[in-house]
Structure formats: C-alpha cells, structure tokens
Amino acid sequence: MKEAFDLTEYWRFVRRRKAFLLLPVLLLPLMTLLGAMVMPRIYLLKAQVIVREEQEPLEGMAVEARITQQLGGIVTIIRSPSSQTQIARQLLKEWPEKGPLIRLLEDFQDHLLIREKREEREVVIEIAYLGTPQEYVAAVVNAFADAIVEQGTQLIRAALQQSIEFVEEQLRQYQKKLRQLDEEEQQLKTQMAEQLGEEAPISSLEGLRQFVSRQLAQDEAELRRLRLELMAARSQKAALEAQLERLEPVIEEVTTGRANLAVANIEGQLAETRAELAAQLKLYTEKHPRIIELQAKIEELEKQLEETRRQTEETGERKTTPNPAYVEVQDKIRAAEGQIAYLSTQEAQVRSSVEKWRRIVPQLPAFEQQLKRITEERTAYQERYSTLLDRHLALTINQQFEESRDTGRFQVHRPGNVPRRPVSPNPKKLAVFSLLGGLVIGVSFALLAEYFDHSVRTTEDLHRYLDAEVLAVLPRLPL
Fold first, then answer.
1. How far are the Cα atoms of 348, 362, 371 from residue 356, in angstroms, in the given order?
2. Sequential DSSP letters for 6-27
3. Please, are residues 115 and 108 in contact by the beta-carbon 8 Å criterion?
4. Which of 54, 103, 125, 339 makes a 20 to 30 Å CA pair with 383?
C-alpha cells in the first residue's frame, strides 16, 4: 500500500538538517558579495556612427561616389592592425598604465566589438567596449568613433576625387570626339560643295536632294532646247548650202540694171523661201498647210525668175557682176556656222553639267548616310557630355561640402560621456545566483547527511529497519 504524503515528516527533516541547509545559503551569498566588492568594476559603453547616404543639398542628384558603395571598407580598415595600433598609441599617451602596446591590442581583440548595419539610406556602425575604469572606456569608444569618422571622410574624399578625375577624363575624350566629328562633317561638306557649288544647301539633307533634282531637271531641259536649236541651225545651214549651189556666183546684167536688179530680188526671195521650206520640213510633214503654201510660193517665184531672165536677155545688154543673192547666202551660211559653233559650245557645257548631276545623284544616299551618322553620333555624344557635366557639377558640390567638415553626413550617437554603472560585477545578480546556489548546495548536503545517517529515531524507523511491531514507546522526559 502506498504511503500517504506527510508534510510534517519533511518539516522534521528540515529542522533536523537545518545546519546543512542554512550554512551554504548564508555563507555563499556573503562570500560572493565580499568578492564582488573587491573585484574590479567592468564598464560597457556603446556608440553608433550613422552615415547618411546623401547630403540634403545633393538629394536626387547624380553622384558617382555613392556613400553606401564607398563605406564598405571602413570597418575593415578600423579592424586592421595598423589602424588599431595608431589608436592604441594615442590612448597610451593619456593612459600609460594600460601598456604595453601589445597588451592593449590584445584587449581590443577580446573586448572591442565593431559591426555595421546597412539601412535604406544610411549605414549604422556600432562600437561596444568592455573595460575599466569608466573614463578609459569612454576614451576608447570616442577614439574609435572619431577614427571611423576620419577614415570615412578620407575615403569619401578620395572616392570623390577619383570620380571627378574620371569624369574630367571622360569629358576630355568626348570633347575630342566631338571635334573629330565636326572636322569630319566639315570635310564631307567641303567635298560635296566642291561638286555642287557654293549655292547648294549642304546643311539640309532634304533641301540638298531637292536642289540636285531641280538642277538636273533644269540642265536636262536646257540641253533639249539647245539640241533643238542646234538641229534647226544645222538644217538651216544645209538649206542655205543647197540654195548656194543653185545660185550663180555672178550674174549678167542689162545696161539699164533694172532687169538685173529684179532678177536678184526674185532670186533672194526664192532662196529665203526654200530655206524656210527646208526648216519647216524638219518640223512638219509635206501635207502641212504651211509646207503646201511655201511650195506653191516657190513655184510662182521660179516662174517669175524665168520670165524676168528671158525678158532681160531679149531687151538688155549683158554685163557680168557678182550675184548679190549669192553673197547674201554666203553671209547667212557664215552666220549659221557661227551660231552652230556657239550652240555646240553651250550644248557641250550643259551636257557636262547634266553628266555631273547624274554622277552626283547616286552619291547622295551615301553622303546623306554619312551626314546622318555624324549627326546622330554628335547628338549622342552631346547628350552624354551634358550628363557628364551635370555629374561633374554634382561631384564638385559634394566635394565642397565634404571639405567644409560640416556636412552632417556623420552623426555619432553616445549614451553619455562615461558609463554610469558597471556591467560587472552586478551585486543583485550575484546575490540572487549565490542564494539559489547556496540553497541547492544546502539541500544537497542535507540529503546526503540524511542518506548516510542510520540512526533510529521513530517507530516508523524501527518498523522499516526490523519489520516488527512496536510494543511500547518511552517518552523523552526533560532533565
């Protein structure tokens, strides 16, 4: 049968072993508090260095050296042995008892924590240090915070300077390229102007195409006109030569001279009519009214000439003289030859001009393509050049703000000049833990003492040890 729980039995056990229980509970917290009083005070100080991504006056501007990309190496630089050695030497000037240098550097490795946290528009660098005394802890944290600000400022300035130099080099290259494009365009326009003439609108592609088409059409029309005039002049010359063959170089005149003059007049009219008929036959057919009229006139003039000559031979005395009609036709032939020479010269010049325009027409697409390419490249380079100018201006403004040392980019947040309370030792925590520890130890000692104690003190002990019934119990009487 299971025995019932008896709280009284446990109370007797506690009273019986109270020495084992109370001694650790009292001694351990007391010894812990005494030890805490003589232990060195350890202080913890934290600080934050907040780095803004952009300056207020530069928000929204295109800045090449973005701070979030440039500050990644600050923590690495501060953690490097060279930087920590420099900071340690500065601290040893005010705290020589913290030396030597190697021990101070080892203390930094063990008790100094530096970490960074990136947020949307800023970088937060946290510094935490454990040490003693509190003034020294504050000095260490302040030294590292100042070093981070200084290193960050130097890194940003260097990055800005490199970015400015890079942008300036890019600007020089774009300026050189723009000058080359201007020279190439000027050379191309000069070559085309030499072929087209100074009046050609070289700057306008559409105007240039229209100009060439118009000049070619005008020269072709002029060439057709000159060829028609040249054809008519040659036909007139041929007719005059044919008329000249039919005329006698000399004529026989009567003494009175009147009949001879009449013959010359008729022959002149006949020659002119025949020349006109030859020219008209080049343009019209024989059934044309004007051709029929000229043929009838020629027949009538031939009859008059024959009748006049017959009368002259019958009535007048003959005398040989140069034929005025023959001389007149010769003069007309020479004039026709001069006109043919002039028209031939004009026709050759116009034909040369037409051939020139016809050679230029196939070259226009290539010229337009080159000019279009130069224009597009210049536009693209000018846009990039303007963008680089804006970037250079933004970088220069940013550099001026950085050099002013009052940028507001770095903000150091410290909870106070020096830590007020030590983090170690903590009397309250030590008292609680030592009390709990003493209680555990006391209970353990009491249980051990009870376990190894085989004394018989109650009837239950006799029954448990001897498995026999108790006959009588003698009470304990006071002496």
1. 12, 11, 21
2. -HHHHHHHHHHTHHHHHHHHHH
3. no
4. 54
Nearest of 101, 102, 83, 84 to residue 92 by alpha carbon: 101
Tokens encoding 341: 């020479």
Range of the domain at 459: 7-39+425-466
DSSP state of 424: B
**Distance from C-alpha of 282 to C-alpha of 227, rounded to nearest angstrom:** 13
Is the whole model's pTM more than 0.70, yes or no?
no
Q: What is the DSSP string of 29-55?
A: HHHHHHHHHHSPPBEEEEEEEEEESS-
Cβ atoms of residues 157 and 62 within 8 Å: no
Q: Measuring CA to CA, which residue among 301, 252, 249 is closest to residue 274?
A: 301
- Distance from chain centroid for Cα 265: 92
Considering the domain architecture, whether residues 272 and 320 belong to the same structural domain is answered as: yes
The 3-state DSSP class for residue 355 equals helix
Could you tell me if residue 190 is inside a domain?
Answer: no
Q: Strand 43-52: give its sheet, edge to edge.
A: 112-118, 122-131, 43-52, 410-413
Using CA atoms, how far residue 31 sits from 177, 195, 382, 438, in Å, is: 85, 112, 83, 11
Cα–Cα distance for residue pair 251/326, rounded to 1 Å: 10
Are 299 and 230 within one domain? yes
Q: Kindly tell me the sign of the dihedral angle through the C-alpha atoms of 169, 175, 179, 182.
A: positive
Whether 62 shows a pLDDT value over 80: the answer reads no
Average pLDDT of the chain is 78
- Co-location of 280 and 348 in the same domain: yes
Looking at the fold, whether 137 and 92 belong to one and the same domain comes out as yes
**What is the phi-psi region of residue 323: left when phi exceeds 0, alpha when psi lies from -120 to 50, beta otherwise?**
beta
Which pLDDT score, from 0 to 100, does residue 176 have?
A: 92
440 is written with which tokens? 């555990």
How many whole angstroms separate alpha carbon 317 and alpha carbon 319? 7
Residues 397/58, Cβ–Cβ less than 8 Å? yes
The string of pLDDT tens digits covering residues 140-176 is 888 888 888 888 888 778 877 888 888 889 899 999 9
- In one letter, which amino acid is 73? G
Instruction: Answer whether residue 65 shows pLDDT above 50.
Output: no
How many residues make up the chain in this entry? 479
